[in-house]
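Supplementary Note 2. Why include the ligand at all?

Several targets in our set were suspected to adopt different conformations when bound, so apo predictions alone were not considered sufficient. For every target with a known small-molecule partner we therefore ran a joint prediction. The input for S-adenosylmethionine is given below.
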Amino acid sequence: MASKEENKTLSQVYQEEFQPDYYINRYYSGIDAGNEFCLKNLHQFFEQECGENKNRKKILEVGSGPVPIYVMSASRWSNSIVCSDFLQQNREKLTQWLSAGREADEIWSSYALYVAQLESESADKETAFLVLDRVRHSVRCVIPCDVLQSDPLLSNTESPFDIIISVFCLECAVSFPKEYPSTVSNVVRLLNPSGHLIMMGGLEGEHYFIRDRKIPRIKLTREMINLALQNAGCEIVTWHELPRNLRPPELPIDYTAMFFCVAKKIC
Ligand SMILES: C[S@@+](CC[C@H](N)C(=O)[O-])C[C@H]1O[C@@H](n2cnc3c(N)ncnc32)[C@H](O)[C@@H]1O
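The joint prediction is reproduced in C-alpha coordinate form.
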Protein backbone atom coordinates (compact mmCIF):
# COMPACT_ATOMS: atom_id res chain seq x y z
CA MET A 1 0.00 0.00 0.00
CA ALA A 2 1.27 3.49 -0.85
CA SER A 3 2.34 5.54 2.18
CA LYS A 4 0.54 8.80 3.06
CA GLU A 5 3.60 10.72 1.81
CA GLU A 6 3.47 8.97 -1.59
CA ASN A 7 -0.22 9.79 -1.99
CA LYS A 8 0.33 13.54 -1.81
CA THR A 9 -0.12 15.41 -5.08
CA LEU A 10 2.87 17.39 -6.27
CA SER A 11 0.99 20.62 -5.48
CA GLN A 12 0.53 19.42 -1.88
CA VAL A 13 4.20 18.48 -1.65
CA TYR A 14 5.15 22.01 -2.73
CA GLN A 15 2.66 23.66 -0.40
CA GLU A 16 3.74 21.62 2.60
CA GLU A 17 7.45 21.05 2.03
CA PHE A 18 8.94 23.97 0.08
CA GLN A 19 10.62 26.30 2.55
CA PRO A 20 11.90 29.47 0.89
CA ASP A 21 14.57 30.25 3.54
CA TYR A 22 15.96 26.73 3.40
CA TYR A 23 15.90 26.80 -0.43
CA ILE A 24 17.84 30.07 -0.59
CA ASN A 25 20.43 28.95 1.99
CA ARG A 26 20.95 25.56 0.36
CA TYR A 27 20.91 26.47 -3.33
CA TYR A 28 21.95 30.15 -3.33
CA SER A 29 24.71 30.36 -0.71
CA GLY A 30 27.09 32.03 -3.19
CA ILE A 31 27.52 32.30 -6.92
CA ASP A 32 28.80 29.20 -8.78
CA ALA A 33 29.40 28.21 -12.41
CA GLY A 34 25.75 27.20 -12.86
CA ASN A 35 24.44 30.61 -11.79
CA GLU A 36 27.08 32.33 -13.94
CA PHE A 37 25.98 30.22 -16.93
CA CYS A 38 22.36 31.42 -16.49
CA LEU A 39 23.21 35.06 -15.76
CA LYS A 40 25.71 35.40 -18.61
CA ASN A 41 23.31 33.88 -21.15
CA LEU A 42 20.48 36.12 -19.91
CA HIS A 43 22.75 39.18 -20.17
CA GLN A 44 23.71 38.27 -23.75
CA PHE A 45 20.09 37.64 -24.74
CA PHE A 46 18.88 40.99 -23.41
CA GLU A 47 21.78 42.93 -24.91
CA GLN A 48 21.12 41.42 -28.34
CA GLU A 49 17.33 41.55 -28.15
CA CYS A 50 16.76 44.94 -26.51
CA GLY A 51 19.65 47.08 -27.82
CA GLU A 52 18.80 50.72 -27.22
CA ASN A 53 15.11 50.04 -26.57
CA LYS A 54 15.03 50.69 -22.84
CA ASN A 55 11.85 50.20 -20.81
CA ARG A 56 9.72 49.00 -23.69
CA LYS A 57 9.48 45.25 -23.07
CA LYS A 58 6.85 43.60 -20.90
CA ILE A 59 8.51 40.73 -19.09
CA LEU A 60 7.14 37.87 -16.98
CA GLU A 61 9.01 35.34 -14.87
CA VAL A 62 7.01 32.19 -14.10
CA GLY A 63 7.97 30.16 -11.04
CA SER A 64 10.32 32.80 -9.64
CA GLY A 65 10.37 31.09 -6.26
CA PRO A 66 11.93 33.35 -3.63
CA VAL A 67 14.78 34.26 -6.01
CA PRO A 68 15.29 37.68 -7.68
CA ILE A 69 18.47 36.97 -9.68
CA TYR A 70 17.02 35.87 -13.01
CA VAL A 71 15.40 39.27 -13.64
CA MET A 72 18.57 41.25 -12.88
CA SER A 73 19.56 41.64 -16.53
CA ALA A 74 15.96 42.19 -17.61
CA SER A 75 15.70 45.09 -15.15
CA ARG A 76 18.29 47.02 -17.19
CA TRP A 77 15.94 46.98 -20.15
CA SER A 78 12.45 46.98 -18.68
CA ASN A 79 10.57 48.73 -15.92
CA SER A 80 7.61 46.42 -16.45
CA ILE A 81 8.58 43.08 -14.94
CA VAL A 82 6.05 40.75 -13.34
CA CYS A 83 7.29 37.90 -11.14
CA SER A 84 5.04 34.98 -10.26
CA ASP A 85 4.96 31.76 -8.31
CA PHE A 86 2.59 28.99 -7.31
CA LEU A 87 3.37 29.24 -3.61
CA GLN A 88 2.24 32.00 -1.30
CA GLN A 89 5.33 31.51 0.91
CA ASN A 90 7.60 32.16 -2.08
CA ARG A 91 5.64 35.20 -3.23
CA GLU A 92 5.80 36.62 0.30
CA LYS A 93 9.55 36.01 0.58
CA LEU A 94 10.24 37.71 -2.76
CA THR A 95 7.88 40.60 -1.98
CA GLN A 96 9.59 41.07 1.41
CA TRP A 97 12.96 41.36 -0.30
CA LEU A 98 11.58 43.78 -2.92
CA SER A 99 10.31 46.09 -0.21
CA ALA A 100 13.37 45.76 2.05
CA GLY A 101 16.44 47.98 2.06
CA ARG A 102 20.14 47.27 1.60
CA GLU A 103 20.33 45.30 4.84
CA ALA A 104 18.60 42.47 2.92
CA ASP A 105 20.99 42.58 -0.04
CA GLU A 106 24.02 40.66 1.24
CA ILE A 107 22.63 37.28 0.18
CA TRP A 108 22.21 38.39 -3.45
CA SER A 109 25.27 40.66 -3.69
CA SER A 110 27.65 38.14 -5.33
CA TYR A 111 25.06 37.52 -8.08
CA ALA A 112 24.46 41.25 -8.55
CA LEU A 113 28.21 41.92 -8.72
CA TYR A 114 28.57 39.32 -11.46
CA VAL A 115 25.74 40.95 -13.47
CA ALA A 116 27.18 44.44 -12.86
CA GLN A 117 30.57 43.24 -14.15
CA LEU A 118 28.94 41.86 -17.31
CA GLU A 119 27.47 45.33 -17.84
CA SER A 120 30.64 47.31 -17.05
CA GLU A 121 34.28 46.37 -16.52
CA SER A 122 34.61 48.97 -13.78
CA ALA A 123 31.72 47.58 -11.69
CA ASP A 124 32.29 47.26 -7.95
CA LYS A 125 30.29 46.48 -4.81
CA GLU A 126 28.44 49.79 -5.02
CA THR A 127 27.42 49.15 -8.64
CA ALA A 128 26.15 45.74 -7.53
CA PHE A 129 23.84 47.44 -5.00
CA LEU A 130 22.56 49.63 -7.85
CA VAL A 131 21.64 46.50 -9.82
CA LEU A 132 19.59 45.30 -6.84
CA ASP A 133 17.93 48.73 -6.52
CA ARG A 134 17.13 48.54 -10.22
CA VAL A 135 15.42 45.17 -9.75
CA ARG A 136 13.30 46.68 -6.96
CA HIS A 137 12.19 49.52 -9.24
CA SER A 138 11.52 47.30 -12.25
CA VAL A 139 9.48 44.50 -10.69
CA ARG A 140 5.93 45.84 -10.66
CA CYS A 141 4.33 42.95 -8.80
CA VAL A 142 4.59 39.35 -7.65
CA ILE A 143 1.45 37.42 -8.55
CA PRO A 144 0.08 33.87 -8.23
CA CYS A 145 0.57 31.47 -11.12
CA ASP A 146 -0.06 27.83 -11.88
CA VAL A 147 1.58 26.63 -15.08
CA LEU A 148 -0.63 23.53 -15.07
CA GLN A 149 -3.68 25.70 -15.84
CA SER A 150 -4.57 26.72 -19.39
CA ASP A 151 -4.54 30.31 -18.07
CA PRO A 152 -1.45 30.19 -15.79
CA LEU A 153 -1.96 33.70 -14.40
CA LEU A 154 -5.46 32.75 -13.26
CA SER A 155 -7.42 35.53 -15.02
CA ASN A 156 -4.91 38.23 -14.11
CA THR A 157 -4.96 40.74 -16.98
CA GLU A 158 -1.20 41.37 -17.19
CA SER A 159 -0.64 39.21 -20.32
CA PRO A 160 0.49 39.15 -23.11
CA PHE A 161 4.23 39.59 -22.56
CA ASP A 162 7.17 40.16 -24.92
CA ILE A 163 9.53 37.92 -22.97
CA ILE A 164 8.88 35.13 -20.47
CA ILE A 165 11.61 33.66 -18.25
CA SER A 166 11.26 30.30 -16.52
CA VAL A 167 14.02 28.67 -14.47
CA PHE A 168 13.81 25.15 -12.99
CA CYS A 169 10.03 25.45 -13.03
CA LEU A 170 8.08 23.54 -15.69
CA GLU A 171 9.93 20.23 -15.24
CA CYS A 172 9.36 20.57 -11.49
CA ALA A 173 5.67 21.49 -11.75
CA VAL A 174 4.49 18.47 -13.75
CA SER A 175 4.08 14.99 -12.27
CA PHE A 176 4.36 13.02 -15.55
CA PRO A 177 6.33 13.60 -18.79
CA LYS A 178 3.08 13.54 -20.81
CA GLU A 179 1.96 16.74 -19.02
CA TYR A 180 5.05 18.69 -20.09
CA PRO A 181 3.91 19.75 -23.62
CA SER A 182 0.60 21.22 -22.44
CA THR A 183 2.41 23.06 -19.64
CA VAL A 184 4.79 24.64 -22.18
CA SER A 185 1.76 25.57 -24.33
CA ASN A 186 0.04 27.17 -21.33
CA VAL A 187 3.04 29.44 -20.78
CA VAL A 188 3.50 30.23 -24.50
CA ARG A 189 -0.15 31.35 -24.61
CA LEU A 190 0.91 34.31 -22.42
CA LEU A 191 3.42 35.51 -25.06
CA ASN A 192 2.89 38.09 -27.79
CA PRO A 193 3.36 36.84 -31.37
CA SER A 194 7.14 36.91 -32.04
CA GLY A 195 7.75 36.97 -28.29
CA HIS A 196 10.51 34.94 -26.64
CA LEU A 197 10.35 32.21 -24.04
CA ILE A 198 13.62 31.72 -22.13
CA MET A 199 13.83 28.45 -20.23
CA MET A 200 16.67 27.23 -18.03
CA GLY A 201 16.81 24.04 -16.03
CA GLY A 202 18.36 20.62 -15.65
CA LEU A 203 18.43 17.73 -18.13
CA GLU A 204 17.77 14.11 -17.09
CA GLY A 205 17.30 14.87 -13.39
CA GLU A 206 14.63 13.08 -11.34
CA HIS A 207 14.60 14.95 -8.05
CA TYR A 208 16.08 17.60 -5.77
CA PHE A 209 15.92 17.96 -2.02
CA ILE A 210 14.31 20.33 0.48
CA ARG A 211 15.97 19.22 3.73
CA ASP A 212 15.64 15.40 3.58
CA ARG A 213 12.44 15.51 1.48
CA LYS A 214 13.04 14.32 -2.07
CA ILE A 215 11.05 16.53 -4.45
CA PRO A 216 10.33 14.66 -7.69
CA ARG A 217 10.66 16.20 -11.14
CA ILE A 218 10.39 14.73 -14.64
CA LYS A 219 13.42 13.44 -16.49
CA LEU A 220 13.63 16.11 -19.16
CA THR A 221 15.53 15.71 -22.45
CA ARG A 222 16.43 18.16 -25.19
CA GLU A 223 14.11 16.28 -27.53
CA MET A 224 11.14 16.67 -25.14
CA ILE A 225 11.78 20.41 -24.91
CA ASN A 226 12.12 20.73 -28.67
CA LEU A 227 8.89 18.80 -29.37
CA ALA A 228 6.92 20.69 -26.72
CA LEU A 229 8.07 24.03 -28.12
CA GLN A 230 7.26 23.02 -31.70
CA ASN A 231 3.82 21.87 -30.57
CA ALA A 232 3.31 25.27 -28.89
CA GLY A 233 4.18 27.14 -32.11
CA CYS A 234 7.76 28.09 -31.16
CA GLU A 235 11.19 27.44 -32.61
CA ILE A 236 14.43 27.24 -30.65
CA VAL A 237 16.80 30.08 -31.56
CA THR A 238 19.48 29.55 -28.86
CA TRP A 239 20.57 26.43 -26.98
CA HIS A 240 23.50 26.08 -24.55
CA GLU A 241 24.42 23.39 -22.03
CA LEU A 242 26.67 23.29 -18.97
CA PRO A 243 27.77 19.90 -17.54
CA ARG A 244 26.58 19.26 -13.98
CA ASN A 245 30.14 18.51 -12.79
CA LEU A 246 31.00 22.20 -13.14
CA ARG A 247 28.59 22.97 -10.27
CA PRO A 248 29.54 22.32 -6.61
CA PRO A 249 29.43 18.55 -5.90
CA GLU A 250 27.64 19.02 -2.58
CA LEU A 251 24.46 20.42 -4.20
CA PRO A 252 21.69 17.77 -3.81
CA ILE A 253 20.75 17.67 -7.50
CA ASP A 254 20.95 14.76 -9.96
CA TYR A 255 20.69 16.31 -13.42
CA THR A 256 23.46 15.66 -15.94
CA ALA A 257 23.59 19.16 -17.43
CA MET A 258 21.98 22.57 -17.18
CA PHE A 259 20.37 24.01 -20.29
CA PHE A 260 19.67 27.55 -21.48
CA CYS A 261 17.07 27.72 -24.24
CA VAL A 262 15.52 30.67 -26.05
CA ALA A 263 12.48 29.95 -28.22
CA LYS A 264 10.63 32.40 -30.47
CA LYS A 265 6.87 32.24 -30.90
CA ILE A 266 6.23 31.98 -34.61
CA CYS A 267 2.49 31.28 -34.73
C1 LIG B 1 13.12 24.37 -8.04
S1 LIG B 1 12.09 25.74 -7.67
C2 LIG B 1 12.78 26.97 -8.77
C3 LIG B 1 12.68 28.37 -8.22
C4 LIG B 1 13.49 29.42 -8.99
N1 LIG B 1 12.95 29.64 -10.31
C5 LIG B 1 14.93 28.98 -9.10
O1 LIG B 1 15.39 28.67 -10.22
O2 LIG B 1 15.63 28.94 -8.09
C6 LIG B 1 10.58 25.29 -8.44
C7 LIG B 1 9.57 26.41 -8.41
O3 LIG B 1 8.43 26.01 -9.16
C8 LIG B 1 7.28 26.48 -8.48
N2 LIG B 1 6.13 25.68 -8.91
C9 LIG B 1 5.79 24.43 -8.53
N3 LIG B 1 4.62 24.07 -9.11
C10 LIG B 1 4.22 25.12 -9.87
C11 LIG B 1 3.09 25.37 -10.69
N4 LIG B 1 2.14 24.45 -10.85
N5 LIG B 1 3.01 26.56 -11.32
C12 LIG B 1 3.98 27.49 -11.16
N6 LIG B 1 5.08 27.32 -10.39
C13 LIG B 1 5.19 26.15 -9.76
C14 LIG B 1 7.62 26.30 -7.02
O4 LIG B 1 6.79 27.04 -6.17
C15 LIG B 1 9.08 26.73 -7.00
O5 LIG B 1 9.20 28.11 -6.79
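The longest helix spans residues 33-50. The domain at 10-265 is CATH 3.40.50.150 (Rossmann fold). Comparable summaries for the other entries are listed in the accompanying table.
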